[in-house]
Amino acid sequence: MNDVLDDLAALRPGVATIERLWTPQQQADTLAAVLAHDRRPAARDHRLIRPPRRAQRRRRAAGAAIVAIAAAVVSFQVVLPHGSPGGAAPAAAAALEGLAITAAASAPADLAGPGQFRHLVVQTWQADMPDRGVAETRQTFESWTAADGRSWRRNYGQDSTGHKIDQYLAFPPGGDQTFSASPAYLASLPTETTALRRYLRSHASGSTSRDEAVFVAVGDMLRSGIAPPKLRAAAIRVLERTPHVGIGATHTDSLGRPVIRFDFIDNNRRANEIQSLLFDPKTASLVGAIESYASGQPWFTSTTVSSGVASSVPPQVLARAQKVN
Known about the structure:
globular
């Protein structure tokens, strides 16, 4: 079934073609119209998707045909129910599409150029025994990543025993895996949604299912903030086509900032776990992650406090950093 859906999705024109003939505002208007349409099936209709009404013949240019195909694909993705083979829950798919449009239109001003560094400050919290509310580790990770992928990082805070943490580390450029992706590796990935989805489903691993592996891989790809805009948009659209993804109840992060939260919940394979990704609705940037029990009680949180571009790495970090192979 997934292969059939992939082939159908492949009929959609490329993002560049759609954006040239169909502006972001027109896309948003079409999506709003789709969501406002009554999608309840008739009493005797047990199929997943209502068959489309026969369109009246129009004497239009090819551009109009492309718009119609794109709108049909959007409605096809949006009406699939949560947990179906085709993709995320309807509300999640709609929110993800909005984020993808924002991501694709964003300028790469936050990407480090030659002689610059991507600067991130991330706070994490982890409870060793969250069900009992004891033993927690709080750390701050401040990093500087060069355009070639080399990075320097300072980790500070305290562990679950109360001991202080203060480390300075230097990392090589990274590799060809999503959890330690180098800029060169990210730049080599396909930016067309279907192609990227197929790549991740065949390469991502380390999870209980392909769906979970893809969800985790997208988070890994976007967390550092070094993925180019087109890749960000494609990765977000991959989540649209990933089952078990829904909108989370939380609308703010640990700092009280507005976010859109997406939960991955697979009751068959991980009945007592929720994995969540938090996005900034204005920039479509990934700004946090949460792992929690089915009860909603978190045992791990990660929050991007700030991000931007720096002209240099602080001298004390360069002087004290220990190389990590």
